Structures are given as structure tokens and as C-alpha cells.
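Hi F.,

I've been meaning to write this up properly since the lab meeting, where we talked about keeping a consistent format for the predictions we share between groups. The idea is simple: the sequence comes first, exactly as it goes in, then the C-alpha cells exactly as they come out, then a line or two of notes. No screenshots and no reformatting. I'm using this chain as the first example so we have something concrete to point to.
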Amino acid sequence: MLTIASDIDALARFGRALADPIRCRILLALHKAPAHPADLAEQLAISRTRLSNHLACLRDCGIVVAVPEGRRVRYELADARLGHALDDLRGAVLAVEADRTCPDADEKDCC
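Output, unedited:
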């Protein structure tokens, strides 16, 4: 049973990161490989401004980190265990009921 505030905060931050479909797509892309914002925006077919807002949210949640590379910045998951958590969570949800969708899945949510 979770009773420690830091445990609850950690789960809430992860939940917030996963609460938006674009952030989920970003996390899945970064799970495959670190990427630069311009490449991510192109890969996900979203504007750089919109991507920047979502990356800021993910950074604030402590889920991704920005790694300076000269004049550019590369984004990656803050810890490899987050990638494992994404795989485990996705697998568990699909194992329970693969044909379900969230009623609010089409709602747009911004940080």
C-alpha cells in the first residue's frame, strides 16, 4: 500500500506524463532511441512549438532529460528503468483487456 508522499508523487508524475497521447508517443519514440527535437517533431508529425511544450512537461515531471550536444540538445528517458516500466505497463494493460479504449482518449490535454 502506498502511503509515502514521495511514492504517490512519483506515480502521479508518471501518470501525468502518460495522460496525453502526444506525450505517450514521445515517450515511446525516446524509448526506442534518444532524439533531437527537430527529428522528433518530424517523426511524430507535430509542430516544434507543440513538441516543445510537451517536452517541457515531461522534463518537469522528471521523465525525460535534455542532454546538451554542442549547439544542439538531445532528449532521452531520464532512466532506462522508465523504458522497462513503459513496456511492463503496456503489456499489463493489453493482457487485461486489449480491445478497450479510454473514453477520453480523443480529448486534447496540454500542460
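Notes:
Residues 80-97 form the longest helix (18 residues).
The chain has five helices and two strands.

If this format works for you, I'll send the rest the same way.

G.
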